[in-house]
């Protein structure tokens, strides 16, 4: 039975959410699967991936073939590296402790990169908020200045009308 590690789509239209599963290659995309290995949510930035690395390595060692997208996810989370290191241990090139140490060092480096990306995204988001706030303050200042000018113009107009009005009243009194 040929086994594939692939994505099984869930979620609603326009908002996909995937399960990472080991399934028979002949099964439907969203059909029966042998083992659920994790989840993948591309709607968040960065994408949320929760993967059982040891389970994925077990399936890979037993001959499961990942699809292209699943291969990218497994590589991103280190399952392919762990499988590679396990082959090295089997051949005697590494000890179990060396392989685990290499894998942990790789995980720490990867986690640092992910945290840097999250920080950069939050900084960019904060800068965008600050720019929007500054633009809004500028627009509000222009509105206030325009409102003051309009109020001053109206006050000046009223003053000219009032100064003209007493003369008009005086002429009306003379006529009466």
Automatic annotation (TrEMBL):
Provide ranges: composition bias, Acidic residues: 158-170
Keywords assigned = Ribonucleoprotein, Ribosomal protein
Q: Which InterPro entries match?
A: Ribosomal_bS16 (IPR000307), Ribosomal_bS16_dom_sf (IPR023803)
The answer to whether UniProt assigns keyword Nucleotide-binding to this entry is no
The record's section on Pfam families has:
Ribosomal_S16 (PF00886)
Q: What cellular-component terms does GO give this entry?
A: cytoplasm; small ribosomal subunit
Is Ribonucleoprotein one of the keywords UniProt gives this record? yes
Q: Where is this region: Disordered?
A: 114-176
Q: Name one GO molecular function term.
A: structural constituent of ribosome
Biased region (Basic and acidic residues) positions are: 114-151
Q: Which HAMAP family would you find in this protein's record?
A: Ribosomal_bS16
The UniProt similarity line reads: Belongs to the bacterial ribosomal protein bS16 family.
Matching entries from NCBIfam families are given as: PRK14521.1, S16
Question: What PANTHER family does its record include?
Answer: 30S RIBOSOMAL PROTEIN S16 (PTHR12919), SMALL RIBOSOMAL SUBUNIT PROTEIN BS16M (PTHR12919:SF20)
Put simply, this protein is called: Small ribosomal subunit protein bS16
Species classification = Bacteria, Pseudomonadati, Bacteroidota, Flavobacteriia, Flavobacteriales
């Amino acid at each position: 039975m040929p086994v594939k590690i692939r994505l099984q789509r869930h979620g609603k239209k326009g908002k996909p959410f995937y399960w990472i599963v080991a399934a028979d290659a002949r099964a439907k995309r969203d059909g029966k699967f042998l083992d659920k290995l994790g989840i993948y949510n591309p709607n968040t930035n960065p994408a949320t991936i929760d993967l059982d690395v040891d389970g994925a390595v077990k399936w890979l060692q037993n001959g499961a073939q990942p699809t292209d997208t699943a291969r990218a996810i497994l590589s991103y989370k280190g399952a392919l590296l762990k499988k590679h290191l396990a082959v090295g241990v089997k051949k005697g090139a590494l000890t179990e402790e060396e392989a685990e140490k290499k894998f942990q060092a790789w995980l720490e480096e990867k986690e640092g990169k992910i945290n840097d990306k999250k920080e950069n995204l939050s900084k960019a988001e904060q800068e965008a908020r600050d720019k929007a706030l500054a633009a809004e303050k500028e627009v509000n200042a222009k509105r206030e200045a325009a409102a003051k000018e309009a109020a001053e113009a109206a006050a000046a107009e009223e003053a000219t009308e009032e100064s003209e009005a007493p003369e008009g009243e005086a002429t009306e009194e003379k006529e009466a």
